[in-house]
Amino acid sequence: MAQKKILIVDDEIGIQNLLTRVLKGEGYDVRSAGNGGLALKMAQEDLPDLVLCDIKMPGKDGIEILAELKQMSPKIEVIMLTAYSTVESAVTAMKLGAADYLKKPVDIEELKIVIVKTLGIAELKRENLALRQQVGLRYGIDHIVGKDPQMLKIFDLIRTVAPTPSTVLIHGESGTGKELIAGAIHHHSPRSNKPFVKVNCAAISEELLESELFGHEKGAFTGAVRANEGKFMLADGGSILLDEVSEMSPKLQAKLLRVLQEKEVDKVGGREPVKVDVRVMATTNRNLEEQIQKGAFREDLYYRLNVVTIAFPPLRERKGDIPILTRHFVEKYNKEMNKKIHGISREAEQCLLRYHWPGNVRQLENCIERAIVLCPGPVIEIDHLSPDVVQAAMRPSGQEIKEIQAGITVAEMEKKLIFETLKYTQYNRTRAAEMLGISIRTLRNKLNEYRSEEAAGEGYGPFSTQAC
Prior knowledge:
- By secondary structure, this protein is α/β, with parallel strands linked by helices.
- The chain has four domains: 5-121, Response regulator (Rossmann fold); 140-311, P-loop containing nucleotide triphosphate hydrolases (Rossmann fold, 3-Layer(aba) Sandwich), CATH 3.40.50; 316-394, Orthogonal Bundle (Helicase, Ruva Protein, domain 3); 406-467, Homeodomain-like (Arc Repressor Mutant, subunit A, Orthogonal Bundle), CATH 1.10.10.
- It is built from 20 helices and 14 strands.
- It has a five-stranded parallel sheet with strand order 2-1-3-4-5, with helices on both faces.
């Protein structure tokens, strides 16, 4: 992560030197200026993340500098410093957008804490501004693709649950889109203008995850060169999504249970708990009741999380949504790649409908993205789909296998497979031969053989003249 840039503005050279030395030791990129004119010029040339600004200075005072900095960029955070604190000056500074207001002589440890908090909040503001710009498209219910009856029930449940503060457990297979459900709940809740913080519990080691969730104090462990606000503190007033919560260690499960019960977090190396107001949502692709039986998940935590349960169906159980999702992804990647693909052929769509989709919606999206890349236009054909998808889609289903009776000969099975493949490809012999892994000549010879058998009254009929 890039160093945060801090600009110190103070007419006392001793204060400049002290704060510069201290903050450089904390890992910040620090510059200083002795007057407002120089400070504004430096800020214009290289925008700082945060400015520490004295109020009483010759020339431009701190209030004027604050106003011009905020006009230059609202993203600049400003902490005011003064030895002449008055209610009036504090109110004026806060109205103009100052992040905080500290009295001189400055308590160095307090200043460090205020800087960390201010920069953390600023970063979260930027993330949430970007999120809010997209949230209507990404997380609004109307923009979650799906018309299957199961999905419609989930949409109704989102509308019911969103206004409440209850915890929500969303379970479903990987790639189904569980994060979208959590985002929709936050978006439709009274907390929608507050942070929505996501944490992937499966992607972070136990040691780092504890700090990531609950924060740490400087020196709490090797490498903790500065204090860190945890995700729960950053999500205060909003919502937090614990993605794949089942991957948490027993130790962290106990700490999470305490957060849910007491509404407070214990920072690593901290002395006092910190109160938080956070709506907790969690996802899992595991059966947590089975995990409880194995001793891998706490039963008391399960009941705390499982106030409201949303079961997200796998794609294979809502195949009616596959054509809708396909059109959605075609439109999406048309825009991203500046293409003009009009749609997908019937043969390719039938292949998508027959496939099992173990990777769910994420896998379907990857498949369509690949097809858009390979398709010269205007229609995606079966050739543009992943060979793995095509080959798996052509394998006989479990039901078809059950229909094959014991005692059937290999020759009869071969004939049945050839005719089923021809039927699926709408009697396209070239495509059928490719799917069967044989040459077009071999297929033609087999069909001639079957036609001779049918003429003699021996074959697998009725024989389709289309196949010949």
